[in-house]
């Protein structure tokens, strides 16, 4: 293994240290009266079938692919799956905004910046890589709840960085889960659809993200085509096999040669090295590793 390095001058870095409709339980929780096709507690007509009114929550490239699929479905007037599509994203220091905002603006979709979610009426919410815990009050505004497109086979890798941890830990199989969001905790809701794919050998997290984003977008459209039935057939996540994928800290990129094997270092590079450069210490100087060959 050959290493390309760059010396970083200045202070030492961090390397030192059922029934084709929402269940009665869900409808009661949501304060919905009557049956689908009737009116809910706010006098809003609850639809039994498409086209749906969708509010999308997302930020990054993975989420952008799901939004692209929703927008394509909205533009497809023959199928009539999506009638309305609005977008919620988070503020960004970049003038262009995050990928989801960029796509929404280019596609002339209404955009709100969290915590503003507008005042429109929607049938269902969709979340992909949003990174914000949604309140129970917000979830209950949607007759069919809020769906989450999550790039792992839940309950493995709950949390904000599932793709990175998939690569970092050398998983050979991964996938995408479409689940229904519950309040107060991330990634614990019932599974509506789940598909697995092999992790390509030597795949970087960015490369794997591309594969999973396309899979997730297709799965999302499939669920929306049969939404009431999909919700009625949702299954609870197993209690075995739960793992967590926390955000990557700055210290994660620091190589510790005495503690890590060459395979672990290569996996670390494939997981985050194309996002942020790895670092190590050499004679009390911080060294930035530009590439591992």
UniProtKB/TrEMBL annotation:
The keyword Chaperone does not apply. It holds the Pfam family Formyl_trans_N. It catalyses: L-methionyl-tRNA(fMet) + (6R)-10-formyltetrahydrofolate = N-formyl-L-methionyl-tRNA(fMet) + (6S)-5,6,7,8-tetrahydrofolate + H(+). It comes from the Eukaryota. Keywords: Mitochondrion, Protein biosynthesis, Transferase, Transit peptide. It is found in: Mitochondrion. It is an enzyme of class 2 (transferase). This is Methionyl-tRNA formyltransferase, mitochondrial. It comes from Mustela putorius furo (European domestic ferret). The lineage of its organism: Eukaryota, Metazoa, Chordata, Craniata, Vertebrata.
């Amino acid at each position: 293994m050959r290493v390309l390095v760059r010396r970083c001058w200045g202070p030492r870095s961090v390397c030192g240290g059922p029934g084709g409709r929402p269940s009665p339980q869900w409808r009661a929780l949501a304060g919905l009266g009557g049956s689908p096709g009737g009116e809910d507690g706010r006098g809003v007509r609850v639809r039994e079938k498409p086209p749906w009114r969708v509010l999308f929550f997302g930020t990054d490239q993975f989420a952008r692919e799901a939004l692209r699929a929703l927008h394509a479905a909205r533009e497809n007037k023959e199928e009539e799956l999506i009638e309305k599509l609005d977008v919620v994203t988070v503020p960004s220091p970049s003038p262009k905004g995050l990928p989801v905002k960029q796509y929404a603006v280019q596609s002339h979709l209404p955009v709100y910046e969290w915590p503003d979610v507008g005042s429109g009426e929607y049938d269902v919410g969709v979340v992909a890589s949003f990174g914000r815990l949604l309140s129970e009050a917000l979830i209950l505004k949607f007759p069919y709840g809020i769906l989450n497109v999550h790039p792992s086979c839940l309950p493995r890798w709950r949390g904000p960085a599932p793709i990175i941890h998939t690569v970092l830990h050398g998983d050979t199989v991964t996938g995408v889960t479409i689940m229904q969001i519950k309040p107060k905790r991330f990634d614990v809701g019932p599974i509506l659809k789940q598909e697995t794919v092999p992790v390509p050998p030597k795949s970087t997290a960015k490369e794997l993200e591309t594969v999973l984003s396309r899979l997730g977008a297709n799965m999302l459209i499939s669920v929306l085509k049969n939404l009431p039935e999909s919700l009625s057939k949702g299954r609870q996540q197993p209690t075995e096999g739960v793992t967590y994928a926390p955000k990557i800290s700055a210290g994660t990129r620091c190589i510790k040669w005495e503690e890590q094997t060459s395979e672990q270092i290569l996996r670390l590079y494939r997981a985050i090295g194309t996002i942020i450069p790895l670092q190590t210490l050499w004679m009390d100087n911080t060294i930035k590793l530009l590439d591992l060959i």
